[in-house]
């Protein structure tokens, strides 16, 4: 925590105070009016040459990430203006059509209760695929010594390159898989004649044996051949934790609300929101409350100055 206090710039503390204590429009003008500083100070925070990703690991993850799960997923939010950095037409699965917006891939660690963000990437049209961005973050996690019990993700990330990479790492995974994948030379949905079942074999282009479990209309895939069908379903259910994190980040911590145009400013805001999430999660856990309840209590409190802010959160970062 001493490292957190020393290396956190003053203007960044003001920005975090605005994110944590209020849930308003995330423009620098609005945040500045809350914490009573010049909006230029907060604006400059978004353009600091600051190692946001490395500090996320050092301040919030390195001491906590032990046995647990790695979860991968992405989320989008609409932004209007084709010339804005990081904005393109992206598929929104919630409404079933393409929208103009920003698409962010997130990697988190969880033990089933606590959730720690480890990294994020913004997907850019014409750049690396979301699958490659996820692989980059997994490589980074491995270099930092993370050794998960399982890596969990949905069917969009179950491409052969990622599955083979995880097998290369010696990591176990559990994912949903699309029904048109070829299993032992036959489409998966043609392999199972009943609503439930399990089979071991090989998927096309996958260099290791896998287990497929059918659960109603969905097909679950893992490289741990010893699991029972019930265990596969239970493990995959843990993936819902990242959906809850997305809801919290959007509703309580300003994801999708930053009005800055540049990619650099957007990345800074997203990382600062992750810092705020980690601080509030730890404090809420300490008080035996949910994040939603704790944030509601903060909303009723007076906006603190930076010293009071650090005194409140100093013991838990």
Task: Report on the architecture of this protein.
- The chain is α+β, with helices and mostly antiparallel strands.
- The protein has two domains: 2-154 and 239-313, no CATH class; 155-238, no CATH class.
- The chain is 43% helix and 21% strand.
- It contains 13 helices and eleven strands.
- The chain has helices spanning 2-7, 10-21, 28-35, 39-45, 52-61, 130-143, 160-169, 188-191, 229-237, 240-252, 263-287, 291-300, 306-313; strands at 69-78, 88-92, 97-110, 115-123, 150-153, 173-177, 182-183, 186-187, 196-201, 210-215, 218-222.
- Strands 1, 2, 3, 4, 5, 6, 9, 10 and 11 form a nine-stranded mixed sheet that branches.
- Helix 2 crosses helix 11 and helix 11 packs across helix 12.
- The N and C termini lie close together (6 Å).
């Amino acid at each position: 925590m001493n490292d957190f206090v020393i290396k956190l710039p003053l203007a960044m503390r003001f920005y975090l105070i605005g994110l944590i204590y209020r849930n308003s429009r995330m423009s620098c003008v609005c945040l500045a009016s809350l914490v009573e500083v010049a909006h230029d100070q907060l604006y400059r925070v978004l353009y600091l040459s600051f190692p946001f990703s490395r500090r996320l690991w050092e301040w919030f993850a390195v001491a906590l990430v032990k046995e647990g799960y790695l979860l991968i997923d992405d989320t989008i939010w609409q932004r209007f203006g084709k010339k804005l950095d990081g904005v393109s037409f992206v598929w929104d699965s919630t409404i079933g059509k393409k929208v103009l917006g920003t698409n962010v891939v997130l990697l988190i660690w969880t033990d089933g209760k606590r959730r720690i963000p480890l990294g994020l990437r913004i997907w850019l049209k014409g750049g690396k695929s979301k699958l490659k961005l996820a692989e980059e973050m997994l490589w980074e996690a491995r270099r930092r010594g993370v050794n998960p019990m399982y890596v969990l993700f949905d069917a969009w990330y179950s491409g052969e390159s990622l599955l083979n990479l995880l097998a290369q790492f010696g990591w176990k995974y559990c994912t949903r898989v699309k029904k048109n994948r070829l299993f032992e030379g036959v489409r998966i949905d043609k392999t199972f004649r009943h609503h439930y079942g399990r089979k071991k074999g090989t998927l096309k282009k996958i260099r290791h044996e896998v287990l497929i479990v059918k659960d109603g209309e969905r097909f679950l895939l893992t490289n741990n051949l010893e699991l029972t069908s019930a265990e596969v379903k239970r493990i995959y259910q843990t993936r819902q934790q990242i959906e809850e994190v997305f809801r919290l980040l959007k509703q309580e911590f300003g994801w999708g609300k930053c009005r800055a145009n540049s990619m650099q400013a957007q990345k800074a805001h997203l990382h600062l929101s992750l810092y705020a999430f980690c601080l509030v999660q730890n404090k809420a856990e300490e008080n035996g409350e949910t994040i939603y309840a704790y944030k509601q209590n903060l909303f009723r409190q007076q906006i603190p100055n930076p010293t009071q802010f650090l005194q409140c959160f100093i013991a838990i970062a």
